């Protein structure tokens, strides 16, 4: 193997040392950023929030919505409810909406009003909000730590603030009566 001259070998050694120093500095900077306490707490919080969201969605989709679909006016899947505004060439008069599914109506070129999908999303939102409120209430009773904080309106700016606040965060007025004296 041919040997490099001293000048080239020195240049390569200096370059290698510079690359190692920059890599070490970059690694230290990354670990200082990524492994700080608050970044790890946020990461763990996001992972827990994602798993809690999956549990709440499953509660609503798999348990509550099937029970609600037993109601007479929701006899079939709510998200499949639609009304035909303008029918396509293969419209079937023997069916109330003219089509069996939304996809069938859309593929026929019909103009449909898909109100069921919107109502389904509203019902899901309300059920998820209600179930999260119930879980927060049970947690508050069990641990004596209120998640759901009571809020009142500031009598000066009419914005909502904490019930225990001594001073409004919006208009900075004192709520203990100092402003009235």
TrEMBL record:
Keywords: Membrane, Transmembrane, Transmembrane helix. The chain crosses the membrane at residues 42-68, 122-140. GO terms for cellular component: membrane. It comes from the Eukaryota. GO terms for molecular function: mechanosensitive monoatomic ion channel activity. Its main location: membrane. It is found in: Membrane. Pfam families: MscL (PF01741). It is a multi-pass membrane protein. This is Putative large-conductance mechanosensitive channel. It comes from Massariosphaeria phaeospora. The lineage of its organism: Eukaryota, Fungi, Dikarya, Ascomycota, Pezizomycotina.
